[in-house]
Amino acid sequence: MLWLAPGLALAANIPSTIRDDAKQLRQRALTESNAYAIVESLVLEAGPRLAGSKGDEAAVAWALLKLEELGFENVRAEDVEVPHWERGETRVEITAPFPHRLVATALGGSFGTDADGIEAPVLMVTNIAELEELPRSRVEGTIVFFNDRMEPTRDASSYSRVVRNRAYGPSAAARLGAVAAITRSAGTSSDRIAHTGSLRYADDAPRIPAAAISNPDANLLERQMQLQDVVTLSLSMTSRHLEPRRSANVIGELRGTDAADEIVLIGAHLDSWDLGQGAVDDGSGVAIAIEAVRQIREAGLRPRRTIRVVLYANEEFGVSGGKAYAEKYSDQVAQHVIGLEADLGPGKVWRFDVRVAAKALPLVEEMHKLIEPLGIARGNNEAYGGADLVAMRDLGMPVLGPRQDASLYFEVHHTVNDTLDKISREGLDQNVATYAVLTYLAAAIEQDFGRLPPPDSE
Ligand SMILES: [Zn+2]
To answer: Which of 133, 194, 260, 415 has a beta carbon 3.0–4.6 Å from 256's, enabling a disulfide?
Structure first.
């Protein structure tokens, strides 16, 4: 009988040739990445890309050309219907006791006011739970001000908390009779700029207008509220909804060899908000996904499974592309061996989370060893995976979740400051190396990652 060291037996899971290739790929991707040029080209040639806008259309054309030019196979645009909304002008002013114009922007999807606008006393709360403890008589006829401060966190946990005010606050306020809602920006910038983002109107509440105000303006409003019993605010907004438009998920592949019908999906979203350039969110993710796969091909590697890059339509405004993809490929979910997405900016990956079947956890440990030299710790088996992948994940597709450092991301997220100069090449290229290695490994190995149970049963 042969006595093997335990480490030796485990390491045999991923063949040494594949591991060697992955190490070379890692080095190559760090030093020869072209990702910055890709995001620069997107920002320069398509600009901001709000669903249904001219920029959105330009981005689809850009992506088709770029994927062709970079040598991707089966390049195509798959039709997706997207909502079409215009921000218009937003004017928010404190009218008493101490008049001030506040820097504000409409929340995505908000209806506007009529031409006269709204003027009403302000009711300040920290969050929805606090609001819902108040009697209707306190809320009726007011403009509810959700005032929860977001602090920078590497894992984006503070965003998960405050984003609830932005998304669900307006309907919670309307249900209790409020006439409008404003939120402290769900972002960390101390600049006088407002962070936008989508709201979700509930079916059982009036659709009241809602805007975000900048953090310094939220401080000012909060101070007035502490000093005075009654503070009044006027709000006028010209936001409006238009007819839905056609957009597209843009797809390109590196075809596999003996297992070409098995797919490793790497995604990012092509759309962006209208205020900035959409460089960080999610131009950087688009560049990471494209460049990771280009690096694999340039390294002369041709893995057995097909690697499919999906640049999703309209993530920001209802995840239209992610849902459309899952619908279109609902009969091919089982062929999607794994998915991963880049949608948290260009901050370095610091932890490797996954969501895979238990049997694949030893395999994941081995994959981790090959990205560990990039400064990445091993995480948990509860990865989110990315908004665009959720629909496929819920159908059973496992996900790899490299966690990008979000400490600086929410300084510029959904603001006018989301511009190219905010992208660090070093961070971007560390991402490219991470995504390239993980994508390559997943496509090159024999093993799979099992399937996930339906979300209810977890
Ligand atoms: Zn995004």
So the answer is: 260
Report the CATH number at residue 49.
3.40.630.10
Ligand 1 center–CA 123 separation, angstroms? 31
The strand pair at 73-86 and 259-269 is best described as unpaired
Percent of the chain with pLDDT over 90: 96
Distance 269 CA to ligand 1 centre (A): 7
- The whole-number pLDDT of residue 457 equals 65
Q: What is the mean pLDDT of residues 50-69?
A: 98
Which residue among 315, 316, 341, 411 is the active-site one?
315
Task: Give residue 158's domain range.
Answer: 89-239
Residues lying with their CB under 5 A of ligand 1, a single-atom ion:
281-282, 343
Q: Do residues 57 and 173 both lie within one domain?
A: no
Q: Is 252 helix (H, G, I), strand (E, B) or coil?
A: strand
- Tally of structural domains, the chain: 2
pLDDT, tens digit, 9 for 90 and up, residues 280-309:
999 999 999 999 999 999 999 999 999 999
pLDDT band at 7 (very low <50, low <70, confident <90, very high): very low
Average pLDDT of 227-246?
A: 97
Buried b (16+ CB within 10 A) or exposed e, 402-414: bbbbbbbbbbbbb
Q: CATH number for the domain including 227?
A: 3.50.30.30
pLDDT one-digit tens code per residue, 89-143:
999 999 999 999 999 999 999 999 999 999 999 999 999 999 999 999 999 999 9
In the reported structure, the alpha carbon of residue 282 is separated from the centroid of ligand 1 by a whole-number distance in angstroms of: 5
Tell me, yes or no, whether 286 and 435 share the same domain: yes
How many whole angstroms separate alpha carbon 90 and alpha carbon 253?
Answer: 43
Whether residue 114 is found in the same domain as residue 189: yes
Q: For residue 130, indicate whether it is catalytic.
A: no
One domain for residues 250 and 232: no
d(CA 220, CA 287): 39
Q: Which helix (H) or strand (E) holds 267?
A: strand 259-269
Same domain, 158 and 251: no
Domain membership of residue 303 (yes or no) is yes
Same-domain status, 294 and 397: yes
Residues in the chain: 458
On whether residue 4 sits in a domain, the answer given is no
117 and 172 inside one domain? yes
Q: Distance (Å, rounded) from C-alpha 436 to C-alpha 288?
A: 9
Residues 26 and 128 in one domain: no
Query: Does 4 score more than 70 pLDDT?
Result: no
Q: What is the per-residue pLDDT for 456?
A: 76
Q: List, edge to edge, every strand of the sheet that includes 259-269.
A: 73-86, 240-254, 305-312, 259-269, 336-341, 399-404, 349-355, 377-378
- Give pLDDT, residue 1: 42
Query: Of the candidates 214, 239, 264, which is a domain's last residue?
Result: 239
Tell me, in angstroms, the distance from the centre of ligand 1 to residue 388's CA. Answer: 9
- When pLDDT is averaged across residues 42-60 and rounded to a whole number, the result is 97
CA of 272 to the centre of ligand 1 (A): 7
